[in-house]
Amino acid sequence: MSYANAIAGEAQPICPACGVTMHPLLDEGIPADECRECGFRVEWPAADAAREGDDDERDTRWD
């Protein structure tokens, strides 16, 4: 598979079970990548919600 952006092809994870490039399951609405060769699936980590007080803790050295 070739991409217009050469780096885009390298951004996909490699299956730890068989070494084939994994593909996202966005079309199915599943937050995971799956290997089309062996079926190995890796769930995406959930984004952490902002904590109360995050703005107070931010680094202001560059403001």
Oligomer: single chain
The tally of strands reads: 3
Class by SSE composition: alpha+beta
Separation of the first and last Cα atoms:
45 Å
Descriptive overview:
This protein has 63 residues and is of the alpha+beta class. 16% of the residues lie in helices and 16% in strands. It is built from 2 helices and 3 strands. Strands 1-2-3 form a 3-stranded antiparallel sheet, with no helix packed on it. The protein is elongated, with a radius of gyration of 18 Å. The termini are far apart.
List its salient traits.
63 residues; 2 helices; elongated; three-stranded antiparallel sheet; 16% helix; alpha+beta
What topology emerges from the helices and strands here?
Elements: H1 6-11, E1 22-24, E2 32-35, E3 41-43, H2 54-57
Antiparallel strand pairs: 1-2, 2-3
Concise overview:
This protein has 63 residues and is of the alpha+beta class. The chain is 16% helix and 16% strand. A 3-stranded antiparallel β-sheet has the order 1-2-3, with no helix packed on it.
